[in-house]
């Protein structure tokens, strides 16, 4: 595969794979190597940058017919396209199909999400809180869960730091690791939603594409993107975890908003003032749940 975009390849990020007349979501699961075009040697690589050529493994959301490029150029070549901006990110040719997972067939259980919701007397929904570090996402999520719990509703909060202390403890803060972090949290959120819970996600999730991919896993009406909009200078003053102080000292190069960009939502379902009243924010989120 030849990577043609200025933005590097990100593990875990979902792209669109175009092959012949078919377009399906696809994820690069592994970068096996990168080719040195001068020496012709292959080197280990974790990602691909502009004009890099590498061998990768891809997985698609749905089955797609592909041949090896040597057998048929038309069905053995593909493009990867960004799901949000629609820019072409890479062009590639198929060597062979990986035969993993052919015998995996999801089982339809009798007790489903609808049954679990009826038992709990509530409608399951996802509230995905995104914003800068220190914006107040965890504080708002905590206040909201306390309010809902007092009303007898069944909830669960997936907090960024809490998830990274267990499920995602192997991930760093590079863009590709952030994409994988969001992907795993989104898949876990989908399981909890199926359990009939109201799921509150408090996650920086800085990139629009990753949040869009997370949202695409859910049916319309099940997922609400909430922007906790707090001025960066206030986040830095709060600095509850000392992250901004570390970034200022040069010991934390990938802090969102300083070392890495934060892309605010363009069309959020709700914008919460992270510098305002906590009760007001909780009221707004409860109203969103009732919609």
TrEMBL record:
Q: What is its EC number?
A: 2.7.1.25
EC class: transferase
Nucleotide-binding among the record's keywords?
yes
Active site positions, chain numbering? 205 (phosphoserine intermediate)
Residue span(s) of domain APS kinase: 124-273
Q: Which UniProt keywords apply?
A: ATP-binding, GTP-binding, Kinase, Nucleotide-binding, Phosphoprotein, Transferase
Superkingdom of origin organism: Bacteria
GO MF annotation, one: adenylylsulfate kinase activity
**Any matching Pfam family:** GTP-eEF1A_C
- SUPFAM superfamilies assigned: EF-Tu/eEF-1alpha/eIF2-gamma C-terminal domain (SSF50465), P-loop containing nucleoside triphosphate hydrolases (SSF52540)
Q: Which CDD domains match?
A: APSK (cd02027), CysN_NoDQ_III (cd04095)
Q: Where is each GTP-eEF1A C-terminal domain found? A: 2-94
Which pathway is this protein engaged in? Sulfur metabolism; hydrogen sulfide biosynthesis; sulfite from sulfate: step 2/3
| Enzymatic reactions | adenosine 5'-phosphosulfate + ATP = 3'-phosphoadenylyl sulfate + ADP + H(+)
Q: Which residues bind ATP?
A: 131-138
What's this protein's function? Catalyzes the synthesis of activated sulfate.
Name the protein family. Answer: Belongs to the APS kinase family.
Q: Which PANTHER family match?
A: ADENYLYL-SULFATE KINASE 1, CHLOROPLASTIC, BIFUNCTIONAL 3'-PHOSPHOADENOSINE 5'-PHOSPHOSULFATE SYNTHASE
Name the chain's protein: Adenylyl-sulfate kinase
Task: Write the lineage as a comma-separated list.
Answer: Bacteria, Bacillati, Actinomycetota, Actinomycetes, Streptosporangiales
